[in-house]
């Protein structure tokens, strides 16, 4: 198990394994947030948050909610607004300890125009 923790420690996200790759997306929100996304099946991720420590933002078609710590402001993850058995979610790998994450491939996604990987 690997844990992603926001700066103040109010939000912890446990995932089952190290990611095999990370995604650096250039869509309008990701280029502003600056995350590196690690993707997991939603039912394998556990979010632990102190009461009142989560805030979220949904835009566009409102299918995804981008979640942050309401105390320190770190973007922690995105999740589908309506989960299904096949839902996935993205965890911001910048909240993992670098040593625990280890070396991992970073893929560039053109979320601004083509929704294709650039590598």
Task: Provide a concise account of the structure shown.
By secondary structure, the protein is mostly beta strands.
Explain this structure to me?
- With 119 residues, this protein is mainly beta.
- The chain has a single domain, classed as Metal Binding Protein, Guanine Nucleotide Exchange Factor, Chain A (Beta Complex), CATH 2.170.150.70.
- The chain is built from two helices and eleven strands.
- The strands form three sheets. The protein has a five-stranded antiparallel sheet with strand order 4-9-8-7-6, with no helix packed on it.
- It starts with a strand and ends with a strand.
- The mean pLDDT is 95.
Short descriptors:
119 residues, mainly beta, Metal Binding Protein, Guanine Nucleotide Exchange Factor, Chain A, five-stranded antiparallel sheet, three-stranded antiparallel sheet, 2 helices
Give the arrangement of secondary structure elements.
Elements: E1 2-5, E2 11-15, E3 21-25, H1 30-33, E4 37-41, E5 46-49, E6 54-57, E7 64-69, E8 75-80, E9 88-92, H2 98-101, E10 105-110, E11 116-117
Parallel strand pairs: 3-10
Antiparallel strand pairs: 1-2, 2-5, 4-9, 6-7, 7-8, 8-9, 10-11
Low-confidence stretches: none
Overall shape: it is: globular
SS element count, helices:
2
**Looking across the biggest beta sheet, what order are the strands in?**
4-9-8-7-6
Q: CATH topology, which one?
A: Metal Binding Protein, Guanine Nucleotide Exchange Factor, Chain A
Q: β content, as a range?
A: 35-45%
Oligomer: single chain
What CATH architecture would you give?
Beta Complex
Specify the biggest β-sheet: 5 strands, antiparallel
Q: Termini separation (Å)?
A: 29 Å
Mean pLDDT: 95
Structural class comes to mainly beta
Q: What is the radius of gyration?
A: 14 Å
